[in-house]
Amino acid sequence: MLKEIGYKVWQLKTEFIYRLALKRYAKSLPALSLADRQIVDRLQQEGVYVTSLEKLGFASTPQMVDACSEVLSCTEPERDRSAAKSPLQIYTLSELTDFSLWGNERRLLDIVQNYIGLPIKFQGIQLRREFSHPQQFGAMLWHKDGDDRRSIKVIIYLSDVDREHGPFEYIPKSVTAAAWLRFRIDYQIFRTGFSGLKNEKMEQFVPRSAWKSCVGAAGTVILVDTHSVFHHGSLRTAERSALFFVYTARNPKRPDLCRRYSHHSHPRLNLSRNSQNLKQQ
Ligand SMILES: [Fe+2]
C-alpha cells in the first residue's frame, strides 16, 4: 500500500515537472512558416498529418531515395523466405548518412520540436519490411506506443500501399476525445498485457467508419504521434516496406523502450559509397 502511494506521488511529481518544462520552453520553440504551423496544428487536433516527399521538398530527399533502392536490394526478398520465418524484418539505418541527413532536416526538426514542445532527441531510423500474414499480431494489433508523453514517428512508404499492403491505420484524436472512451480502450489494452486489440474488439468502441486508413503512393509521408492515437498496421496479403524515423523529448518518459530504435538485435545495413556495395552486419 505504501509502495503504491509512493509511486502515485512520484507520478504526480514527474507530471508536474513535465508541465512546468513545457510552459518554460514554449518561448524558446523555433519559429515556423504558416504551412509548417498548419502541420503542427493538425498533429495537435488529429494526431496525424499525411504529406509526401515531393511536397516536403527537402534538399536531402534525392540522396535518400537513391540510397533506399540500394538498401532494399540488400535485404532478404520474400521469395527466399520460408513460411517459418517472421513476417516482419526490421533493419536499423540510424548510422547511414543518406538517411540521417533527411531525418535531421532543420524544417522537420523544427516541426517535431514545436509539436513535442521540448528539446527533442532523434531516436533512430528503421527499415521495416512486413510480409503477408493471415492474422493480427504485434504492431498489427491496435495499440498506442509508450515511449514518451508525445512522440513523433515519420513513416515513409517505399512502394505504393493499397488495401492489400496493410496500410497504416489510426483513429483520429478527435474521435477518442472523450476521456471515458479512451479509458475504456486503454483498459482493454491493459488487459491484453499491452499487446493490443484485434479489429473485432476495437470496433466495439469505435466503428470502422471512423478508422482512417493511410493508403498512398511510394513517397507518402505520415507524421504521427503514436503515443496519442490508437493505431496499427492493418492486415496485409502483400508486402509493405517503409522507413520509420522516431523522435521523442530529449529525456523521454521511457528511455528503455526507446532503445529498440537503435538496438543491436536488429541487423544494421552498412552502405559503402566507395564500392557501391551493401553489407549486412
Ligand atoms: Fe506503434
How does this model look, in words?
This is Phytanoyl-CoA dioxygenase. It comes from Chroococcidiopsis cubana SAG 39.79. It is a single chain. The protein has helices spanning 2-25, 34-46, 53-56, 61-74, 97-103, 106-116, 179-191, 199-202, 255-258; strands at residues 48-52, 88-92, 120-130, 152-157, 168-170, 212-214, 220-225, 231-233, 240-249, 269-272, 277-280. With 281 residues, the protein is an alpha+beta fold. Strands 1-7-4-9-3-2 form a six-stranded antiparallel sheet. The protein has a three-stranded antiparallel sheet with strand order 6-5-8, with no helix packed on it. A hairpin with a 4-residue loop joins β10 and β11. α2 (34-46) crosses α6 (106-116) and α4 (61-74) crosses α5 (97-103). Mean pLDDT is 88; it is low at 274-281. Bound molecules: fe (ii) ion. Fe (ii) ion (FE2) binds next to loops.
